[in-house]
Amino acid sequence: MKEARKANKNIIFGLGAHVIKAGLSPIMIDLMEEGWVSGLALNGAGIIHDFELSLAGKTSENVEVQLKEGKFGMAKETGEFLNGAIKSAGSRGIGIGEAVGEMLEASNFPYKNISLIYSAYRLNIPVTVHVAIGTDIIHFHPSVDGEALGKASLHDFFLFCSLIEKIEGGGLYLNVGSAVILPEVFLKSISFIKNRGKKLENFTTAVFDFIYHYRPYQNVVRRPFRAGKKGFYFVGHHELMIPLLAAALKA
């Protein structure tokens, strides 16, 4: 990572939502401010936890209890604000990450200083959001717009491809806590980039997660490389590994 930064190569983080929910945003923001992050990729749940932290300073539900009572995911503000930003993105031809960043920047939310998306917007760091329809609580909110959701997330996919294209020559992609969505998006981005005749061979990947998952190993650590080469797989709790990574970089 230090060599990549010195050579001005992209360092892209793909973050599962649990990384945000576990309270690691301030550490990631510090790395962003120190120049260790060239771009962020999130799944749909990532913008939900990031938004709720910005608005309320906390983001959690007792899913088992709320589900039995038919109340899980029914927060009014989460659906209204995020779907409003996504509709705006769809109508203007921009991505979800940029639109949510704009919304947070214009807000007076009391805790937006701990928002990854707001911080990235403030620092001009691209954020891409990769949505699977039906996986997120805002998809059954009355204000959801499937057309805007798909259009804006597709925009973010191609933005993500442009960021990954620039890890060639010594850059990195780090998948932290996403078991399915982001590993699949990363694999498809490599296929798209190479199909366009671009070279993508000299880079490094790593997975950080608290258990071993098949798909991150295959799609991030093994398949992107020629025979005999592979990335890294670090197993441990995010609350330990991300602070240790940040401390090592800052040292």
Describe the protein in words.
This protein has 251 residues and is α/β, with parallel strands linked by helices. It has a single domain (2-200, 212-250), classed as Deoxyhypusine Synthase. It is 52% helix and 12% strand. The chain has twelve helices and six strands. The protein has helices at residues 2-6, 17-21, 25-33, 44-56, 63-68, 76-92, 96-106, 116-123, 146-165, 181-195, 214-222, 238-250, and strands spanning 11-15, 39-43, 127-130, 171-176, 203-209, 232-235. A six-stranded parallel β-sheet has the order 3-2-1-4-5-6, sandwiched between helices. Helix 11 (214-222) links the parallel strand 5 and strand 6. Helix 3 packs parallel to helix 8 (116-123) and helix 7 crosses helix 8 (116-123). The chain is globular. It starts with a helix and ends with a helix.
Give the topology:
Elements: H1 2-6, E1 11-15, H2 17-21, H3 25-33, E2 39-43, H4 44-56, H5 63-68, H6 76-92, H7 96-106, H8 116-123, E3 127-130, H9 146-165, E4 171-176, H10 181-195, E5 203-209, H11 214-222, E6 232-235, H12 238-250
Parallel strand pairs: 1-2, 1-4, 2-3, 4-5, 5-6
Helix pairs in contact: 3-8, 6-7, 6-9, 7-8, 9-10, 10-11
